[in-house]
Every structure is written in C-alpha cells, then in structure tokens.
Write a structure and sequence with these properties.
about 30% helix, alpha/beta, Rossmann fold, 4-stranded antiparallel beta sheet, 8-stranded mixed beta sheet
C-alpha cells in the first residue's frame, strides 16, 4: 500500500500517558508514534499491561482523569489534534468517525436495554434520522454481521444472545455510522476458539468490502494478526519496541521480545514434542521505570549497556524499525 500524506487518516505523535498514583507515576504509554491510512489494518501486539488499550483509549480521548493524564504528544485526525478538541467536537467524532469495539461484549452492552434501543440511539444521535428509519438501518447492520432472524432478534436483551452474537452486535454498532477508523480492543479474548475465528473472519471481510475503513487491532497474540494486518507494532512496557510490515516482522523479527512472542504461537504445521515456549519472567512494574531497556531482566541476549540506557532505534529499511542494542547494527 502506498502510504502518502493524502490518505493518512490518523497520526499519533510521541504520545505519553501517565497515571498518578500513591505508589508513584505509572508511565502506561511513553513516546508512542504511528500512522494509520485509508484501508489499512494495523496490529498493536503485546502482553497485558504493555500499553495497547491505553493508547487506543487516548485516541478517543477517554483516559480517565484523575488518575490518568495525557502528558505529551499529539493525536491528529485529518490533521486536527483530538487532544485539543472540545467535548462537543469529541462527541461528533466518537462513534461516528472513530468507533471502538471492546474486548468483553457482555459488559459493553447495557443489560437492561433491548438491542434495538441501544442501536437506534446511535443512529438518532449521529445521523439525526427518525427512530423508524434508525430501526430499519439497525436491522440491516445486524444482517451484515450475520445475526440470523435480525428482524425478531433486534428486540432481544443482551443476555438472550451468546457471547459471539453479542460481539457481532458490538461490531454492528461500531460500523453503524460508517466510521473511518475502527478500533478493535482484543475483540475475541472472551470468546471460545471457534467463535474467535468467526469474528476475525467477519472483521477481515468487512475491511475487504470497505476499502475506506481503517482498522486498529489490539491483541496479545501475533497469531491473530498474521493474516489480517498490513503492519504490526509490538509494544512492551508502554513503548513500541519493534514495528514494520507483517511480512518483515514474521520473517525477520529483530527484537528478542518479538521473537519470544512468535515462538509462543502454536504451530499446526510442525510436530513439536517439546513444551510450548514461554518468555521467562514477568512484565515489569511500570511505576517509576528506570531509563534503560525494560526487557533486559527477561532477555536471553542481554548486554551490560542494556541495563544502563534505553536503546536507540535501528532502521532495517522499508519501515522495519526496532529499539534494541543487540541487533548487530549498534
């Protein structure tokens, strides 16, 4: 894909998000930058606590304050900084221009309201159309995401749907106003394996049928993004430690954390009698992190300088960049 300024929808520049707690300052996101273009699907990958969800809550300007605060950076949507917008301007963007699908559909839907009520509200609020027309559009969206007997089931309550069907409803709501950016925050983590595959196939089909829709897919598994994403950003301790096109990340991973994540993915095309690989140790406590590589206690290739300073970025070409002292180019 030709990535030009003309088709850039969203640009995150040097984003920093801190949470101020009694124990200290939690640097949840530190100096994160990436761009999103029309029709592009990018993946933000990393373990729990790496900063993926906070990054995307920041895009919607939904970081709870206090204790959280966006302390630096810009988030440009069509060259306009979301962080400087008024609440009225943000309401016009949220749901209409930028939509988000959360990871647990059973808690994202209001259990006391019918599906029809929750979906119709979106159309009435953002598209200013009648309730009758809104209901018609809501039924069309439910059919689009594969809900059977949509005309009858639209009046069900969330508890009358399975987890997979609730997630389909969330996707329908996310796409109902034809947004330019769809943020999928681990949309399959609460579902069983079979339903996970169906939801991922659905998202992939929707992006292929709408060349203008750009998607940010948040996940802890590189296996999920393998066949879906154009580019991958690997996050660790609030920073992007490696980024590049999907092919480069899978064929030539440069950061030891990325290599560890790849080795942790089960391979159906290989017969391995050994136990599934796991990265040793635990993710770091991001309260008052020292200014060195946060991965060094878990790294199999650690060097002395890893413990003293944060590595500079190394560019391998074609947008493949990593922050590691032990790449052979430092």
């Amino acid at each position: 894909m030709m990535e030009t300024a003309k088709n850039t929808i969203l640009e995150v520049k040097n984003l920093c998000v801190h949470f101020f707690t009694e124990e200290g300052v939690v640097k949840a996101v530190e100096d994160v930058s990436f761009s999103l273009h029309k029709g592009e699907v990018i993946g933000l990958v990393g373990e729990s606590g790496s900063g993926k969800s906070v990054t995307n809550l920041s895009i919607m300007n939904l970081v709870q304050h206090p204790p959280g605060k966006i302390v630096g950076g810009e988030i440009l949507f069509h060259d306009k900084d979301i962080l400087k917008m008024s609440e009225k301007q943000l309401q016009d963007i949220r749901g209409a221009k930028i939509s988000m699908i959360f990871q647990d559909p059973m808690t994202s839907l209001n259990p006391f309201l019918r599906i029809s009520t929750q979906m119709i509200e979106t159309f009435v609020l953002h598209q200013k159309i009648s309730k009758k027309e809104s209901r018609k559009k809501a039924i069309e969206m439910l059919k689009l995401v594969g809900i059977p007997a949509a005309e009858e089931r639209i009046d069900c309550y969330p508890h009358q749907f399975s987890g997979g069907m609730c997630q389909r409803v969330m996707i329908a709501m996310g796409l109902s106003c034809n947004p330019e950016v769809l943020i999928c925050d681990e949309p399959t983590s609460a579902l069983d394996v079979t339903i996970q595959a169906q939801i991922l196939d659905l998202i992939q089909d929707l992006t292929k049928s709408n060349s203008m829709l750009a998607v940010i897919l948040i996940t802890h598994s590189l296996g999920v993004v393998a066949g879906m994403c154009d580019a991958i950003y690997v996050m660790y301790a609030g920073r992007i430690v490696e980024r590049g096109c999907t092919e480069d990340i899978f064929s030539n991973p440069a950061h030891p954390y990325t290599r560890g994540l790849l080795k942790s993915v089960p391979r159906l095309d290989q017969r391995n009698k050994e136990r599934l690989f796991s990265i040793s140790g635990q993710p770091p406590n991001v309260i008052n992190l020292p200014s060195c590589c946060p991965f060094f206690p878990r790294c199999p290739d650690v060097q002395e300088r890893c413990k003293n300073s944060y590595p500079t970025e190394i560019d391998f070409g074609s947008g493949h960049i990593t922050a590691c002292w032990n790449t052979g180019k430092n």
